[in-house]
Amino acid sequence: MHSYDYWLILAFFAVVLIPAPFLGRFYYKVMEGQRTWLSPILGPVERGCYRVAGVDPQAEQSWQKYTLALLAFNLAGFLLLFSILLFQDYLPLNPQHLPGQEWTQAFNTAVSFMTNTNWQSYSGEATLSYLSQMAGLTVQNFVSAATGLAVLVALCRGIGGRGIGRKSTKNLGNFWVDMTRATLYGLLPLCLLLALFLVWQGVPQTFAHYVNAVTMQGVDQVIPLGPAASQIAIKQLGTNGGGFFGVNSAHPFENPTAWSNLFEVASIILIPVALVFTFGHYVKDLRQSRAIIACMLALFLIGGATSLWAEYQPNPTLANVAVEQTAPLEGKEARFGTTATVLWSVTTTAASNGSVNGMHDSLNPLSGMVAMINMMVGEVIFGGVGAGLYGMLLNVLIAVFLAGLMIGRTPEYLGKKLQAREVQLLVVTLLVMPVGVLVLGAIAASLPGPVAAVSNPGAHGFSQLLYAYTSASANNGSAFAGFGANTAFHNLMLGLGMLIGRFGYILPVLALAGSLAMKKTAPIGQNSFPTHGPLFVVLLTVTILLVGGLTFLPALALGPVAEHLSLGF
């Protein structure tokens, strides 16, 4: 590694960690309807949205009504996007006259963007019209991220109800209000700033036709254009990840400069980190935020250091060949270097983002394993907007439960006792990733037709399939290149994995929030288990690694571990 690699890493953490506490407080004030510096500008717009939609912002909902509103909204979004993708050849803003998608691919794409997964089994510039990219994908990028933020806020209110002036209640807020505020205040202003910055750096934002050009070798070339900057901004900030162009942020129009590369990769986890501080404001104890941040950073640094070490190792296959080996660049973003690609791969899989600036299929087996583990643990190492923190809070509650068993006390978290109903809901969430990855992946691997999508033999081929079903179930969206996912079977099965990975968490989380909200908060005394010190950070980290490791180690042993051990043979 060179000095500029270390400067890149330091700049990355500075861009994320310095503004996060201030942004976290801003989100708390926004979601609770308090006045902010944006209120004079966006307040009238917010109130206008409520009047048009017929929403009473003062009316609150129980967790059941909150859930029904969320499901109805997401179903409507899916149907709208599915229709746009099927019939885009009949709709405007299609200058290249691209046909509609085949129905299983349209189903997969609609589910993908509705669940904040953004898995793409197609090349964007060759498949989707400008209208599909904007009214379809970009809109879902906003509302799917806002959905995750709304669910997190509901859980925060359930855990620390005093954050909204209540000790015990059956209500969690209003889904329509939370969605509006999350989109209007939480996502749009940041996306506007990032989009303008990207346009300045050279990302196109235009409705012009594609450009036909002739290269210096005399080859005809079509240069794709489109309203890309606006979609790229929300794909990063909303932890969505779906690229406007086929090769995602490895495309010079999506990621043209070193500055765009830095701010795009930092944007992936900016909001997830800020929301950890938002949680601290809800429970009136920022020590809880610092403990969770410490756990997330520890896991991130372990994965990042492992990936960097693996990628800078010489290839043992070439050990006896008279060649000078440097860091392997095959599949990396050559403009920015190996470290930039590794940093992006770790960040995008630690969050449920899925955007890439290199090909994960070309990663060292251990680096590929780190990317898979980041997703297999539920993408709680920062994770998606809202989704990452409510996933981490589930692990916090599991760690508290285990600690209670060890010391013989009824487990409680911040004064809320965890009883049979809460533990049952936690167990349900532990089954989500195993079902999506191991069950669906095993079905795909055992059938001769679906397994033909694998392009490589042996352990690496198995890693391709394992990565695909991990990515879908974790709502990540990245993939090992070479996996032929655009078949009827994989479009439908991966779509099912995305739905399980999204709503298999959301439904228990909202039920858990409702159950905790109805509990009275007991005073926290000297005998209460502290959940903000180094001991709890270690317990939480070990809990995450053990649950993920014991569940997925056999599958990893057949894929990246076996491939790593076979290097040089």
Describe this structure in words.
With 569 residues, this protein is mainly alpha-helical. The chain folds into 2 domains: 264 residues, no CATH class; 279 residues, no CATH class. The protein is built from 20 helices and 6 strands. It has a two-stranded antiparallel sheet. Strands 3-4 form a two-stranded antiparallel sheet. Strand 3 and strand 4 form a beta hairpin. Helix 4 packs antiparallel against helix 7 and helix 12 runs parallel beside helix 13. It is globular. The protein starts with a helix and ends with a helix. The relative contact order is 0.12. The mean pLDDT is 90.
Give the topology, please:
Elements: H1 3-17, H2 20-31, H3 39-53, E1 61-62, H4 63-86, H5 103-114, H6 124-127, H7 130-159, E2 171-173, H8 175-201, E3 211-214, E4 220-223, H9 228-237, H10 258-282, H11 286-311, H12 338-350, H13 365-376, H14 387-407, E5 412-413, E6 416-417, H15 420-430, H16 432-446, H17 448-451, H18 458-473, H19 488-517, H20 534-565
Antiparallel strand pairs: 1-2, 3-4, 5-6
What is shown here, in short?
The protein is mainly alpha-helical.
- The separation of the N and C termini measures 27 Å
The secondary-structure class comes to: mainly alpha
Query: What is the count of helical runs?
Result: 20
Q: What is the H/E string?
A: HHHEHHHHEHEEHHHHHHEEHHHHHH
The total count of strands amounts to 6
Described by strand count, sense and barrel closure, the largest sheet is: 2 strands, antiparallel
Average of the residue pLDDT scores: 90
* Total tally of structural domains: 2
